[in-house]
From TrEMBL:
UniProt topology in membrane: Multi-pass membrane protein
Database matches in PANTHER family: CHLORIDE CHANNEL PROTEIN CLC-E (PTHR43427)
Limits of the CBS domain: 463-515
Transmembrane segments: 12-32, 106-132, 173-196, 216-234, 255-276, 282-305, 317-342, 348-366
Location in the cell: Membrane
Pfam families: CBS, Voltage_CLC
Protein name: Chloride channel protein
Amino acid sequence: MLEFMHHLRDYPWAFILPGIGAALSAIFLDYVMKEGAGHGVPEVIYAVSRYGGLLRLRSSISRLISSCLTIGSGGSAGPEAPVVMSGAAIGSNIAKLFKLNDRQRVTLVGCGAAGAIASIFNAPIAGLVFVLEVVLGSWSTVNIVPVAIAAVAGTEVSRFFNGNQIAFSHGGFDIGVADTVAAAGLGLATALFSILLTRALRSMHHVSDGVKLPKWGRAAIGGCLVGLLGLVFPDVQGEGYHAIREMIVGAYSGAFQLAAIAIFAKILATSLTLGWGGSGGIFAPSLVVGSFTGLAFYRGVTFLWPSIPLVGEGCFALLGMAGLIAGILQAPLTAIFLIVQITGGYEVILPLIVVSAVSTTICHYFESASFYMKDLVDRGQLLRPGTDARVLNDLSLGELIEKDCLVVTPQMTLREFVGVVKRSTRNHFPVEDSENRAFLGMVDLNKVRPYLFDTIMYDAVVVEQIMDRNVKFISYGDELTTVLNTMDTEGLFSMPLVVNRRFVGMISKATLLDKYRKELMVQTTDNP
């Protein structure tokens, strides 16, 4: 689509094309598919974390079409994340068709995502590592084997239709010690621009949210601004792979200043596209920003210290791509294997490791979570396998309820209450209204124990006088993480579950922790 519209760029009004494409993308997602704009991958991670990988079937095509409209008209975004969501949605709905359980569905979601990444980049190892490191967050054998098979299958299907081609071919690089050392400096630079891109995207989201226009109107504004920017810097439009190919083979003719300015221009274009409502991913923009960063870094170093024997600007453009991916995703293994496979640059593995490690470490220091996960972490919606939040999320209140509590009424005398205590094995007794059975409070045996040994009080005291009305209780819908935190804060060992003012049962810390231990064993073993 981008090639089809390329000849229109020579017209004075061509700057509105990205705006039209972004607006149509927003209209398609909001009014036709009933889905909000997004990057795709965070939605997949959210589904894996909270809903056992449950994704709607229409998600398999919605982001593909919307990203084509955005990118094809000149918006600065990538097609990879929408393809990942498409593959993940297909895997999720296959699991639904065969009535598989949540853990099996999550594995198939990973298989779909891995097949998508592997096919679009012709990189099976990168697809496998990306899914395990970013999407699933788990390296268990039960995930590795099927995800690896799916990545290989996706690659083979892609090769059948497109041939066995690498995305960015180049000549060989003779890597020296100076290049590996310089890679550490490049890692610092790529970390800086990873943080800048992350925060620019987030800032643009906040700015656009403050504009009182429908989503398609905001997307149109962002797209038109990208079109205006593209009149000066044509390389910022679309996914930008053509610029990467030029830089890797050393054919980019722009001076150092132009390469440096192009970094900021691409970041701005991507922020305007995605931050204002366009659809697409950040893989391709990150690769472009990274390659410009590597190119500018090389030219700056060789200008300042011309005697340093560096291998060439094409190699540093390649290393810059790894640094940006590692930094913005905080996924160094994904960056290393992706760049190795899409460029065939196995000889640069040592500086790749250096630049990826440095970039990831610095970015993690300034950004607690990657671009994909930041919003999920802030909302408490990122639940990784084996973590407290994930284990507690997989437990339900229904399986924790203890219903062997004996109920008392406020009019009951202390003598009658003692009779109930003799028949009970618990220390807590819910108090209910004798007429409508509404929950009124609790009697804690430990707090009324002195009364029990004073027989003179047996007929003089009623339950209403010794009950606690200010009882913290649990409702359906409360998250177990919150429940456990409340117990710890208040020094409680059990809490009543109350629904519609009716006592249902008790939730005790002992039962909760016992179920927690069993669920943790399930999640940390390789048995499906």
